[in-house]
Amino acid sequence: MKTSIRFTLLFFSLASLSYENAQAQFLGGFFSQQSEQRKLMAEQIAQYEIYLSAIKTGYHITETGLKTAHELKNGTFNLHDAYFNSLEQVNPVIQNNPKGKAIADLDAQTLKLFSDEFTWQQQQKRLTASELTYFQKVQANIAAKCKLDMGELTDVLTTGKLQLTDAQRLDRLDKIYERMKDKFAFAGSFTSKCRKLANGRKNNRQDKYQLKQLYGIQ
Fold it and tell me: How far is residue 126's CA from residue 120's CA, in Å, rounded to a whole number?
């Protein structure tokens, strides 16, 4: 009887130990699985946050890049605008260049040569009507060319008219000056020849008159 009781107690003791071991193993496995899952979830969350951070960084870079490109583009246009606007400004040194006044003086003198000569020829009446008409045509042609040169001079020396560098404006002044000198020289030569022709005819008339007086020809 005692032996049977001992056997029963031993059986329950072993059974209890087995249960506790099994329970411990089960709980240990359960908590181990929970720990692994939490670890995996933490890793996934960390990767997800890294991914989001990369997206945000990429977006920021793209946004910054586009903004920078836009600023550079606008900056380039602004630089271009500033450059072309500066070309429209006339340097005071160029505006006060002596050649500007010299061109204007040559223009006035050229026109005056023609005007004075035509007036004198009309008074003297030594040129024929066709010769006077030709004189007026030459005068009008030179006056038209002078007007073009003076218009260009005004554009070169006036702010906002032309987009030119200082060197280009000086080059234009030089060319206008040379053209105006040529016209002035031509005007002087042409009017001088007209005056010589008229004076020659006057002398011929005087010579004829003197011959008539000498020989008593009426």
Answer: 10
